[in-house]
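INTERNAL AUDIT FORM
Audit reference: QA-55
Scope: verify that the stored structure record matches its stored sequence.
Auditor: D.O.
Record contents follow.
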Amino acid sequence: MKTSIARYIQRAKGTRVLTDVATTLCLAPRAPYTSSRPLPSSSSLTPIRSLHQSSSSSSSVGASSSNPPSSSTQDPEHPYLWYHTSSSTRRIELSFLPSPPSPGSRTVLGYLPLFQDSGLNDFQENSEFLKLLHDLIRAGLDANVSEQLAFEASARPTDGYINLCDERALPPAGRIAEPEDTLGTVFVQDGQIDGKTYQAMPSYRLITANGPCILPKGLDQFVRNELEKIDQAEKKA
């Protein structure tokens, strides 16, 4: 699935706009990203650029300029991904929630530095979020929150483990998803998913050349609801 990191981040009161925060992440076929091999260099990978470009000027706001105000923008090509800019840390926080997170929140997928020509290699994955994500997926599977996955399990002719794939890059029928696009595995018995058997795939990545994480339908809403509860608890602490 072709997706973008974001088209723009709007400055406070609409005075200036940060346009084209990202170009398409998957413009051409690329070799899979694995933990043992970095993403291609900026010369071969379309960078996330124009993080400081304004709507009224072709020049960019450099690192020495005054800090931009904090703002939040939804990715126009992703169903529930948000970008929160921080005036204090000068970085972009990626989140599945529309409200800015508290400092050090477990609900943040990771971070991008707020400077010109940031690329996917600059994304810093939040290990605490990744652990939390897999815990919530396991809980969601155990609660049978996804009708889509339940239907797929019921159609399975035999018992056994099935792969749970990130929907940013679903494989063709009969094919196996790339390791970085495989969330994990779960056991199916008598056509029913046993959520407690869910095992995370160590090679899974929140963002690859195929784009940011897109969870299976049903699990996505469950995970976001739980993240919202955690976010509220963190802000009250």
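Auditor finding: record pair retrieved intact. The longest strand covers residues 192-200.
Action required: none
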